[in-house]
């Protein structure tokens, strides 16, 4: 199905992350659509520190972020769906 111009995002991820010598030195990750208000993925931020931004590490961070959310059901998506797609969206947020 093609998105309409006014369609809402189900899950959003925003990140400011810095690296040095291939390792994460700073990370702040904000999540939307996975709780009543935007939340930080503190567990994922902690997990990333000192590690490289590899597919495996980002997958771990996505799973860790699930402990920071309180997903809900609404007309757009179920709580199950929001929790299920969060790790994927978090990983994709870091794709250059």
Overview of this structure, please?
It is a single chain. The chain is an alpha+beta fold. Helices cover 34% and strands 22% of the residues. It has helices at 42-48, 55-65, 79-93; strands at residues 12-20, 23-32, 39-40. Strand 2 and strand 3 (39-40) form a beta hairpin. The radius of gyration is 14 Å and the shape is elongated.
Q: Please provide the ordered H/E string of secondary-structure elements.
A: EEEHHH
Number of beta strands = 3
User: Compute the gyration radius: what is it?
Assistant: 14 Å
Structural class: alpha+beta
**Range of strand content:** 15-25%
- Average pLDDT confidence is 93
Please write out the topology.
Blueprint: E1 12-20, E2 23-32, E3 39-40, H1 42-48, H2 55-65, H3 79-93
Antiparallel strand pairs: 1-2, 2-3
What brief labels describe this structure?
3 strands, 3 helices, 34% helix, alpha+beta
Compact overview of the structure:
The chain has helices at 42-48, 55-65, 79-93, and strands spanning 12-20, 23-32, 39-40. The chain is an alpha+beta fold and 96 residues long.
